[in-house]
Description:
This protein has helices at 21-28, 44-51, 67-71, 91-96, 109-124, 127-134, 163-172, 189-195, 202-208, 228-232, 251-260, 287-290, 307-325, and strands at residues 12-15, 32-35, 56-59, 78-81, 100-102, 155-159, 178-182, 197-199, 211-214, 238-242, 263-268, 296-298. By secondary structure, the chain is an alpha/beta fold. It has two domains: 12-107 and 307-325, NAD(P)-binding Rossmann-like Domain (Rossmann fold, 3-Layer(aba) Sandwich), CATH 3.40.50.720; 109-298, NAD(P)-binding Rossmann-like Domain (Rossmann fold). Helix 10 links the parallel strand 9 (211-214) and strand 10. The longest helix is centred in the last third of the chain and has 19 residues, at 307-325. The protein is elongated and about 70 Å long.
Amino acid sequence: MTTLMSHQQRPHLVVTNHVQEEVIDFLSEFARVTANRSREPWSRRELLETAADADGLLMFMPDCVDADFLDHCPRLGSIAGALRGFDNFNLSACDARGIRYQFIPNLLAAPTAELTVAMLISLARSIPAGDAFVRTGQFPGWRPNFYSKGVINSTVGIVGMGQLGIEFAERMRGFGATLLYSDPVRLDRPSEQRLELQHVEFNDVIERSDHLVLMVPLTNDTLHLINGNVLARCKPGAVLVNPCRGSVVDEQAVVRALQSGQLGGYGADVFEMEDWAREDNPSSIPQSLLDQRDRTVLTPHIGSAVQSIRDDIAMTAARNLKALVESTLTPIR
Protein backbone atom coordinates (compact mmCIF):
# COMPACT_ATOMS: atom_id res chain seq x y z
CA MET A 1 0.00 0.00 0.00
CA THR A 2 1.42 3.38 -1.06
CA THR A 3 1.30 6.24 1.42
CA LEU A 4 2.20 9.86 1.00
CA MET A 5 5.37 11.06 2.73
CA SER A 6 4.51 13.20 5.73
CA HIS A 7 5.60 16.81 5.99
CA GLN A 8 8.06 15.89 8.72
CA GLN A 9 9.61 13.08 6.65
CA ARG A 10 10.25 15.22 3.63
CA PRO A 11 13.86 16.43 3.33
CA HIS A 12 14.55 20.02 4.23
CA LEU A 13 16.29 21.91 1.43
CA VAL A 14 17.70 25.43 1.64
CA VAL A 15 18.14 27.69 -1.38
CA THR A 16 20.73 30.25 -0.34
CA ASN A 17 20.22 32.90 -3.02
CA HIS A 18 17.53 34.20 -5.33
CA VAL A 19 16.17 31.83 -8.01
CA GLN A 20 13.14 31.81 -10.22
CA GLU A 21 9.92 30.53 -8.67
CA GLU A 22 9.94 27.49 -10.98
CA VAL A 23 12.99 26.17 -9.14
CA ILE A 24 11.33 26.52 -5.75
CA ASP A 25 8.18 24.89 -7.10
CA PHE A 26 10.21 21.99 -8.50
CA LEU A 27 12.00 21.35 -5.20
CA SER A 28 8.79 21.77 -3.22
CA GLU A 29 7.28 18.77 -5.00
CA PHE A 30 9.41 16.43 -2.88
CA ALA A 31 10.88 18.54 -0.08
CA ARG A 32 10.33 21.30 2.42
CA VAL A 33 12.06 24.35 0.98
CA THR A 34 13.43 27.41 2.72
CA ALA A 35 14.53 29.96 0.14
CA ASN A 36 16.27 33.29 0.23
CA ARG A 37 13.92 35.36 -1.89
CA SER A 38 15.92 38.58 -1.69
CA ARG A 39 18.60 39.71 -4.13
CA GLU A 40 21.18 39.90 -1.33
CA PRO A 41 22.97 36.86 0.11
CA TRP A 42 22.33 35.89 3.70
CA SER A 43 25.03 36.68 6.20
CA ARG A 44 27.01 33.67 7.42
CA ARG A 45 25.07 33.77 10.70
CA GLU A 46 21.71 33.83 8.87
CA LEU A 47 22.79 31.00 6.61
CA LEU A 48 24.01 28.85 9.48
CA GLU A 49 20.77 29.38 11.39
CA THR A 50 18.68 28.46 8.36
CA ALA A 51 20.81 25.48 7.32
CA ALA A 52 21.23 23.98 10.79
CA ASP A 53 18.67 21.24 10.07
CA ALA A 54 19.04 21.14 6.29
CA ASP A 55 19.38 17.86 4.41
CA GLY A 56 20.47 19.59 1.21
CA LEU A 57 21.69 22.99 0.06
CA LEU A 58 21.38 24.76 -3.28
CA MET A 59 24.31 27.19 -3.19
CA PHE A 60 25.81 30.04 -5.20
CA MET A 61 28.95 32.09 -5.73
CA PRO A 62 28.73 34.18 -2.51
CA ASP A 63 28.61 31.05 -0.33
CA CYS A 64 31.62 29.60 1.44
CA VAL A 65 31.62 26.08 2.82
CA ASP A 66 34.40 25.12 5.21
CA ALA A 67 34.77 22.60 8.02
CA ASP A 68 33.31 24.97 10.59
CA PHE A 69 30.24 25.54 8.41
CA LEU A 70 29.71 21.80 8.05
CA ASP A 71 30.06 21.27 11.80
CA HIS A 72 26.99 23.50 12.23
CA CYS A 73 24.95 21.42 9.75
CA PRO A 74 24.88 17.89 11.21
CA ARG A 75 22.07 16.64 8.96
CA LEU A 76 23.55 17.94 5.73
CA GLY A 77 24.07 15.24 3.12
CA SER A 78 24.00 16.99 -0.25
CA ILE A 79 25.20 20.24 -1.84
CA ALA A 80 24.35 21.35 -5.36
CA GLY A 81 26.16 24.42 -6.61
CA ALA A 82 24.65 26.72 -9.23
CA LEU A 83 28.18 27.68 -10.22
CA ARG A 84 31.21 26.39 -12.07
CA GLY A 85 34.22 27.16 -9.85
CA PHE A 86 34.21 25.59 -6.40
CA ASP A 87 37.32 27.11 -4.80
CA ASN A 88 35.13 28.56 -2.02
CA PHE A 89 34.04 25.03 -1.07
CA ASN A 90 36.22 22.74 1.04
CA LEU A 91 35.54 19.51 -0.80
CA SER A 92 37.92 17.52 1.41
CA ALA A 93 35.83 18.47 4.42
CA CYS A 94 32.69 17.41 2.53
CA ASP A 95 34.27 14.08 1.60
CA ALA A 96 35.33 13.47 5.18
CA ARG A 97 31.70 13.85 6.29
CA GLY A 98 30.21 11.84 3.44
CA ILE A 99 28.52 14.89 1.94
CA ARG A 100 27.79 14.54 -1.75
CA TYR A 101 28.14 17.53 -4.06
CA GLN A 102 27.69 18.53 -7.67
CA PHE A 103 28.50 21.69 -9.60
CA ILE A 104 27.66 22.96 -13.09
CA PRO A 105 30.62 22.31 -15.38
CA ASN A 106 29.60 23.65 -18.78
CA LEU A 107 26.55 25.90 -18.84
CA LEU A 108 28.47 28.98 -17.69
CA ALA A 109 31.29 28.75 -20.23
CA ALA A 110 29.60 30.13 -23.36
CA PRO A 111 28.16 33.35 -21.87
CA THR A 112 31.41 33.98 -19.97
CA ALA A 113 33.36 33.61 -23.20
CA GLU A 114 30.99 36.07 -24.87
CA LEU A 115 31.63 38.67 -22.17
CA THR A 116 35.37 38.07 -22.46
CA VAL A 117 35.29 38.87 -26.17
CA ALA A 118 33.39 42.07 -25.40
CA MET A 119 35.97 43.13 -22.81
CA LEU A 120 38.86 42.35 -25.12
CA ILE A 121 37.46 44.36 -28.02
CA SER A 122 36.55 47.26 -25.73
CA LEU A 123 40.09 47.54 -24.37
CA ALA A 124 41.85 46.75 -27.64
CA ARG A 125 39.95 49.61 -29.31
CA SER A 126 40.24 52.14 -26.41
CA ILE A 127 36.48 52.29 -26.01
CA PRO A 128 36.49 53.27 -22.29
CA ALA A 129 38.73 56.29 -22.95
CA GLY A 130 36.86 57.26 -26.11
CA ASP A 131 33.47 56.98 -24.45
CA ALA A 132 34.64 59.11 -21.52
CA PHE A 133 35.97 61.77 -23.90
CA VAL A 134 32.73 62.03 -25.87
CA ARG A 135 30.81 62.44 -22.61
CA THR A 136 32.86 65.50 -21.69
CA GLY A 137 30.98 67.37 -24.42
CA GLN A 138 34.28 68.49 -25.97
CA PHE A 139 34.35 66.15 -28.95
CA PRO A 140 34.84 68.42 -32.02
CA GLY A 141 34.60 65.70 -34.66
CA TRP A 142 37.17 63.30 -36.05
CA ARG A 143 40.75 63.81 -34.97
CA PRO A 144 43.74 61.45 -35.25
CA ASN A 145 43.34 60.33 -31.64
CA PHE A 146 42.58 57.14 -29.73
CA TYR A 147 44.52 54.97 -32.16
CA SER A 148 44.91 51.50 -30.67
CA LYS A 149 46.30 48.04 -31.35
CA GLY A 150 42.95 46.49 -32.18
CA VAL A 151 42.37 42.77 -32.54
CA ILE A 152 42.94 42.36 -36.28
CA ASN A 153 46.49 41.13 -36.95
CA SER A 154 47.21 41.00 -33.23
CA THR A 155 48.34 38.05 -31.13
CA VAL A 156 45.88 36.85 -28.51
CA GLY A 157 47.24 34.55 -25.82
CA ILE A 158 45.01 32.28 -23.76
CA VAL A 159 46.27 30.90 -20.46
CA GLY A 160 44.29 27.73 -19.79
CA MET A 161 42.36 25.66 -22.32
CA GLY A 162 39.51 23.99 -20.48
CA GLN A 163 35.90 24.39 -21.54
CA LEU A 164 35.97 28.15 -21.00
CA GLY A 165 39.13 28.55 -23.04
CA ILE A 166 37.66 26.48 -25.85
CA GLU A 167 34.45 28.53 -25.90
CA PHE A 168 36.50 31.73 -26.05
CA ALA A 169 38.70 30.40 -28.87
CA GLU A 170 35.57 29.40 -30.81
CA ARG A 171 34.36 33.00 -30.67
CA MET A 172 37.72 34.48 -31.65
CA ARG A 173 37.88 32.62 -34.96
CA GLY A 174 37.40 35.04 -37.82
CA PHE A 175 38.85 38.08 -36.01
CA GLY A 176 42.08 37.83 -37.96
CA ALA A 177 44.22 37.34 -34.86
CA THR A 178 46.91 34.78 -34.15
CA LEU A 179 45.71 32.61 -31.27
CA LEU A 180 48.25 31.14 -28.85
CA TYR A 181 47.46 29.07 -25.80
CA SER A 182 49.29 27.59 -22.86
CA ASP A 183 48.04 24.64 -20.85
CA PRO A 184 49.84 21.67 -19.26
CA VAL A 185 47.35 19.40 -21.03
CA ARG A 186 47.55 20.01 -24.74
CA LEU A 187 44.51 19.70 -26.98
CA ASP A 188 44.56 17.04 -29.66
CA ARG A 189 45.84 18.16 -33.05
CA PRO A 190 42.42 18.16 -34.81
CA SER A 191 41.02 20.47 -32.09
CA GLU A 192 44.00 22.82 -32.42
CA GLN A 193 43.54 22.94 -36.18
CA ARG A 194 39.79 23.50 -35.96
CA LEU A 195 40.23 26.34 -33.45
CA GLU A 196 43.28 27.74 -35.26
CA LEU A 197 45.31 27.50 -32.04
CA GLN A 198 49.06 27.26 -31.49
CA HIS A 199 50.25 25.59 -28.31
CA VAL A 200 53.20 27.33 -26.61
CA GLU A 201 54.82 27.37 -23.20
CA PHE A 202 53.57 29.74 -20.49
CA ASN A 203 56.53 32.11 -20.84
CA ASP A 204 56.01 32.29 -24.60
CA VAL A 205 52.33 33.16 -24.32
CA ILE A 206 53.18 35.91 -21.82
CA GLU A 207 55.96 37.43 -23.92
CA ARG A 208 54.40 37.12 -27.39
CA SER A 209 50.80 38.23 -26.77
CA ASP A 210 49.37 41.66 -27.51
CA HIS A 211 46.29 40.62 -25.55
CA LEU A 212 46.32 38.07 -22.75
CA VAL A 213 43.22 36.22 -21.52
CA LEU A 214 43.14 34.12 -18.35
CA MET A 215 41.06 30.94 -18.32
CA VAL A 216 42.37 28.95 -15.34
CA PRO A 217 40.78 27.78 -12.06
CA LEU A 218 41.98 29.17 -8.74
CA THR A 219 44.33 26.69 -7.07
CA ASN A 220 47.44 26.94 -4.95
CA ASP A 221 49.43 26.86 -8.20
CA THR A 222 47.47 29.66 -9.88
CA LEU A 223 47.15 32.03 -6.91
CA HIS A 224 48.73 35.29 -8.18
CA LEU A 225 49.86 33.49 -11.30
CA ILE A 226 49.93 36.93 -12.90
CA ASN A 227 52.17 38.96 -10.62
CA GLY A 228 54.61 41.82 -11.01
CA ASN A 229 57.36 39.63 -12.43
CA VAL A 230 55.07 38.12 -15.05
CA LEU A 231 53.60 41.50 -16.02
CA ALA A 232 57.10 42.87 -16.51
CA ARG A 233 57.63 40.23 -19.22
CA CYS A 234 54.49 41.18 -21.13
CA LYS A 235 54.70 43.29 -24.25
CA PRO A 236 54.56 46.98 -23.30
CA GLY A 237 50.96 48.13 -23.59
CA ALA A 238 49.50 44.62 -23.54
CA VAL A 239 45.85 44.12 -22.59
CA LEU A 240 44.97 41.64 -19.82
CA VAL A 241 41.48 40.18 -19.38
CA ASN A 242 40.46 38.09 -16.36
CA PRO A 243 37.06 36.36 -16.45
CA CYS A 244 38.07 33.34 -14.34
CA ARG A 245 38.99 34.10 -10.70
CA GLY A 246 40.13 37.35 -9.14
CA SER A 247 43.04 35.92 -7.18
CA VAL A 248 44.67 34.50 -10.28
CA VAL A 249 46.08 38.02 -10.60
CA ASP A 250 47.77 40.27 -8.08
CA GLU A 251 45.52 43.32 -8.40
CA GLN A 252 48.08 45.64 -6.83
CA ALA A 253 50.64 44.53 -9.42
CA VAL A 254 48.06 45.18 -12.14
CA VAL A 255 47.57 48.72 -10.82
CA ARG A 256 51.31 49.39 -10.93
CA ALA A 257 51.53 48.01 -14.47
CA LEU A 258 48.64 50.21 -15.61
CA GLN A 259 50.17 53.28 -13.99
CA SER A 260 53.53 52.67 -15.65
CA GLY A 261 52.04 51.89 -19.06
CA GLN A 262 53.37 48.33 -19.03
CA LEU A 263 49.74 47.26 -19.26
CA GLY A 264 47.59 49.11 -21.75
CA GLY A 265 44.33 47.86 -20.29
CA TYR A 266 42.77 45.49 -17.78
CA GLY A 267 39.38 43.83 -17.94
CA ALA A 268 37.94 41.87 -15.04
CA ASP A 269 34.64 40.27 -14.20
CA VAL A 270 36.08 38.78 -11.00
CA PHE A 271 38.05 40.23 -8.10
CA GLU A 272 40.28 39.07 -5.28
CA MET A 273 37.78 40.17 -2.64
CA GLU A 274 35.33 37.53 -3.90
CA ASP A 275 37.61 34.62 -3.07
CA TRP A 276 36.27 33.99 0.43
CA ALA A 277 38.28 30.81 0.95
CA ARG A 278 41.52 32.83 1.09
CA GLU A 279 42.31 33.73 4.68
CA ASP A 280 44.01 36.91 3.46
CA ASN A 281 41.53 37.92 0.78
CA PRO A 282 41.10 41.71 0.49
CA SER A 283 37.91 43.26 1.79
CA SER A 284 37.37 45.39 -1.32
CA ILE A 285 38.58 46.17 -4.81
CA PRO A 286 41.60 48.51 -4.65
CA GLN A 287 40.51 52.10 -5.14
CA SER A 288 43.62 52.62 -7.23
CA LEU A 289 42.27 50.03 -9.67
CA LEU A 290 38.81 51.60 -9.75
CA ASP A 291 40.46 54.95 -10.52
CA GLN A 292 41.95 53.61 -13.78
CA ARG A 293 38.76 54.41 -15.66
CA ASP A 294 40.22 55.02 -19.11
CA ARG A 295 42.10 51.74 -19.20
CA THR A 296 39.83 49.28 -17.45
CA VAL A 297 36.55 47.48 -18.03
CA LEU A 298 35.27 46.15 -14.69
CA THR A 299 32.00 44.26 -14.44
CA PRO A 300 30.19 42.82 -11.37
CA HIS A 301 30.68 39.09 -11.98
CA ILE A 302 28.15 38.93 -14.81
CA GLY A 303 29.90 36.30 -16.93
CA SER A 304 26.86 34.02 -16.93
CA ALA A 305 24.26 36.76 -16.38
CA VAL A 306 22.08 35.92 -19.36
CA GLN A 307 18.54 35.38 -18.11
CA SER A 308 17.76 32.18 -19.99
CA ILE A 309 21.12 30.67 -19.07
CA ARG A 310 20.88 31.62 -15.40
CA ASP A 311 17.41 30.06 -15.31
CA ASP A 312 18.84 26.89 -16.88
CA ILE A 313 21.75 26.86 -14.39
CA ALA A 314 19.44 27.18 -11.39
CA MET A 315 17.08 24.47 -12.62
CA THR A 316 19.96 22.15 -13.47
CA ALA A 317 21.37 22.64 -9.98
CA ALA A 318 17.94 21.91 -8.53
CA ARG A 319 17.73 18.67 -10.50
CA ASN A 320 21.21 17.76 -9.33
CA LEU A 321 20.16 18.39 -5.74
CA LYS A 322 17.10 16.21 -6.12
CA ALA A 323 19.25 13.43 -7.58
CA LEU A 324 21.78 13.72 -4.78
CA VAL A 325 19.18 13.82 -2.02
CA GLU A 326 17.44 10.81 -3.49
CA SER A 327 20.84 9.07 -3.68
CA THR A 328 20.61 8.42 -7.39
CA LEU A 329 24.05 10.00 -7.94
CA THR A 330 23.02 10.73 -11.50
CA PRO A 331 23.52 14.49 -11.90
CA ILE A 332 21.77 16.22 -14.77
CA ARG A 333 24.10 18.07 -17.15
